[in-house]
């Protein structure tokens, strides 16, 4: 249920809203004889004030944003595929409630340009945490890294985001967008106080040029910083893609040649975990270089394209995170 009000005075616009959300989670995990039965309500306020000019505007806003735990974070199944690194979800996780203040400037004079500054904090942050346990029920006891999720500690961040779309000429276009965030984390796990901080961020760039004969060339590049969590961090990585496209049959048909990361055969992903008991370094290597041929044909207003299936639902209020695996030692 949602209700909002808007007030407008000349070039000023003020909005206030209040949203009531009810969440119900039910699950039966027969393999581990565990159930999830949660229900909770959240009252989410939002306020914004905008000052408009001829080709630009300023906007200040405050809102609360809820991030619900993902299914892998809730799943109590214990992954023992690697007996030295055991992981499991936590069916008792509660949603993470973030308080966010934002200040944005937008300009649409020639091309679009937007820059924003934000500050966000929460006191029940969902964190991936690890501890060392000794399995004494076997003939040769050994230490095992146990990884799971907990609502603990405080999470605050200060971020800057920029995005722009430039039409340099009728044939050449350029878009840039990215953000950088400074994160501070604090929390107590297994009686031990932890604190960590660091920078996270993403940056994307795209350049495209259209030729007169139906050819188009596009170059994409991106940078993804690693994650910062309470007990460690993961490594950053970059990607790039080159696409050559040709239109024919009166622009109804398109064929594209795609090269993703042609200069890099493998991608190395590293992560570190530091606890009161141990230090862990993990390394995973995945194939990175790919090539593809894509074909599409427009039938009336219907665009039927032969391509890889994609998910059609984007749950942007779900906390990120997949399997809570500890990884393999490197």
Description:
The chain has one domain (2-306): TonB-dependent receptor, beta-barrel domain (Maltoporin, Chain A), CATH 2.40.170. It is 1% helix and 68% strand. It has one helix and 22 strands.
Descriptive keywords:
single chain; 330 residues; Maltoporin, Chain A; 14-stranded antiparallel beta sheet; 1 helix; 68% strand; globular; disordered C terminus; membrane; OMP_b-brl_3; Outer membrane protein beta-barrel domain-containing protein; cell outer membrane; Beta-barrel_TonB_sf
Q: What is the string of helix and strand elements?
A: EEEEHEEEEEEEEEEEEEEEEEE
Could you give the distance between the termini? 50 Å
What portion of residues is helical? under 10%
Low-pLDDT runs of 5+ residues are 304-314, 322-330
| Backbone structural class | mainly beta
Residue fraction in strands = over 45%
> What best-fitting shape do the alpha-carbon axes yield?
globular
Strand order of the largest sheet: 1-2-3-4-7-8-11-12-13-14-17-18-21-22
* Number of structural units classed as domains: 1
CATH architecture: Beta Barrel
CATH class: Mainly Beta
The tally of strands reads: 22
What can be said about this structure in brief?
With 330 residues, this protein is mostly beta strands. The protein has one helix at 71-74, and strands at residues 2-9, 12-29, 34-52, 56-67, 78-79, 85-88, 96-107, 112-122, 126-135, 142-151, 154-167, 172-189, 192-210, 215-224, 228-229, 232-234, 237-248, 253-260, 266-274, 279-287, 290-299, 302-306. Strands 1-2-3-4-7-8-11-12-13-14-17-18-21-22 form a 14-stranded antiparallel beta sheet, with no helix packed on it.
């Amino acid at each position: 249920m949602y209700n909002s009000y808007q007030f407008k005075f000349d070039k000023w616009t003020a909005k206030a809203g209040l949203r009531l959300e009810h969440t119900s989670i039910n699950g039966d995990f027969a393999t581990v004889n565990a159930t999830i039965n949660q229900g909770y309500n959240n009252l989410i306020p939002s306020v914004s004030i905008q000052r408009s000019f001829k080709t630009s505007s300023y906007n200040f806003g405050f809102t609360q944003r809820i991030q619900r735990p993902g299914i892998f974070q809730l799943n109590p199944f214990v992954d023992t595929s690697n007996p030295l690194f055991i992981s499991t979800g936590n069916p008792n996780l509660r949603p993470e409630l973030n308080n966010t203040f934002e200040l944005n400037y937008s300009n649409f004079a020639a091309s679009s340009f937007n820059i924003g500054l934000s500050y966000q904090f929460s006191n029940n942050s969902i964190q991936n945490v690890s501890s060392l346990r000794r399995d004494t029920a076997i003939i040769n006891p050994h230490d095992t890294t146990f990884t799971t999720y907990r609502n603990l500690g405080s999470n605050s961040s200060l971020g800057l985001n920029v995005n722009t779309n430039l039409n340099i000429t009728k044939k050449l276009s350029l878009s840039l967008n990215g953000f950088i965030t400074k994160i501070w984390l604090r929390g107590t796990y297994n009686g031990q106080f932890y604190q960590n901080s660091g920078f996270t961020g993403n940056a994307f760039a795209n350049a495209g040029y259209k030729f007169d004969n139906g050819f188009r060339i596009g170059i994409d590049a991106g940078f993804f910083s690693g994650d910062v969590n309470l007990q460690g961090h993961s490594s950053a990585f970059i990607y790039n893609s080159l696409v050559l496209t040709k239109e024919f049959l009166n622009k109804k048909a398109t064929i594209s040649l795609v090269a993703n990361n042609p200069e890099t055969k493998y991608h190395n992903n590293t992560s570190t975990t530091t606890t009161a008991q141990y230090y862990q370094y993990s390394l995973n290597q995945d194939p990175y270089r790919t090539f593809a041929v894509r074909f599409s044909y427009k039938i009336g207003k219907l665009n039927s394209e032969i391509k890889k299936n994609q998910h059609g639902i984007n749950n942007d209020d779900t906390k990120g995170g997949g399997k809570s695996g500890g990884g393999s030692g490197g």
